[in-house]
Predict the 3D structure of the following.
Amino acid sequence: MDAGRDFADVTGSDASLRRFLHGLPGVDQVGAEARAAVLGTRSIKTSAKAQAIDLAISMVDLTTLEGMDTPGKVRALSAKAMRPDPADQSCPAAAAVCVYADMVATARQVLGDSGVNVAAVATAFPSGRAALGVKLADTRDAVEAGADEIDMVIDRGAFLSGRYLQVFEEIVATREACARPDGRSAHLKVICETGELQTYDNVRRVSWLAMMAGAHFIKTSTGKVQPAATLPVTLVMLEAVRDFREATGQMVGVKPAGGIRTSKDAIKYLVMVNEVAGADWLRPAWFRFGASTLLNDLLMQRTRMRTGRYSGPDYVTLD
């Protein structure tokens, strides 16, 4: 994907980029929140619910991003991502394990070629407050250690100050830093930290900015700022990726992260994906959940549907 080339006339200067972003249709706040609320009340049949739970499990980026993370915790989390329910061979694996860059090698050692990806946060996560050279070194270190995916944070201060070209160029540079010597490249997820962006219009603008710069995914949040992921914000981002594909033919993924803890919540998001962006996005390649506790609830609900009874509190691991 080379979206930047498609928008070369728009991204040539701060002025042209500002004109484009501020020329996007405004978001009707009341309408967006009302539609998100309606979609959140949709009910699905039992058979569809079972399929939705399995799909949600396969979309989880199982995440640990704490200062007290240890190699042992990352190894255990990686093993859980590959076999979320060791007692049930039919349970799908998670999509990825998301860790700090210094834990990438540990996760890679466990995950190997299992198909579960290693995602690493980079670019001075979670604040993004560092010089560009530091951010790019952070990214290269994670890629060299074996990261399949990089979750970068934008400079929200630059965006809110209207320095759109600076944000655009940092995303472009970070994507370039994702390249490996063999010609392959880690996928780039751009974290917008929507809880700091103040308006839905800004969420739409930053989504387009990231996609034009070559993001493979746009992501709501670091999980360190409240509010984190919300249904209305995700609705706006899903509309953006839908409209971007209509304009360019290129698909970009969406990753809500932070605060999604229950199967009921996850299914609300899947309904929204289907209704707003379309069924093409209902795959781990195009939609992810960034979560640390969601997987446990999905596993317990899955067991209840399979056996007819709830599991005890010790059925799942404490992550």
